[in-house]
Write a structure and sequence with these properties.
Length: 150
């Protein structure tokens, strides 16, 4: 029975879609899905969503909810990251625009993407360190913007 850890599970858009996809794969129906986020309210909301989705889709998935990253990662076979570090998105857009740089998507490319990558990369490296310690055979799938940089 595989264990899938979703780090950044409070992401209502990314986490919701990933959970829906995971629960549609028959080979994963007996998995444990461990949800982790630093925002307790969003984590609780996504935990309720995941449990209801598991019932509605008829899977036998076990849903774990924790604010402890290492606990979520322990023994995982697969780790999905959907994290957002900080609340600087508006500045990522505003600062380049102040200097005449208009960005089509400020969290993935251009100066805004670089700003976000500089905030995100250290946290992703910390997650990788934890994976090496508690789930050394896990496969990491990064779904965190800026995916092209981080």
């Amino acid at each position: 029975m595989p264990k899938i850890s979703l780090i950044g599970a409070g992401s209502v858009v990314f986490a919701r879609r990933l959970l829906q996809d995971i629960m549609c794969v028959p080979e994963l129906s007996d998995s444990t899905v461990s949800l982790m986020d630093t925002d307790p309210e969003r984590l609780e909301l996504m935990g309720k969503f995941a449990r209801k989705l598991a019932i509605d889709t008829g899977t036998n998935m076990t849903i774990e909810v924790t604010g402890d990253r290492r606990e979520a990662l322990a023994g995982s076979n697969y780790v999905l990251t959907t994290i957002r570090v900080g609340d600087s998105f508006e500045r990522d857009i505003a600062i380049p625009l102040k200097y005449g740089v208009d960005q089509s998507v400020g969290d993935t490319v251009g100066p805004g993407g670089v700003f976000k990558a500089l905030r995100t990369a250290p946290v992703l490296l910390d997650i990788c360190d934890d994976i090496e310690d508690v789930a050394p055979d896990a496969t990491l799938l990064n779904y965190t913007n800026p995916m092209a940089i981080a």
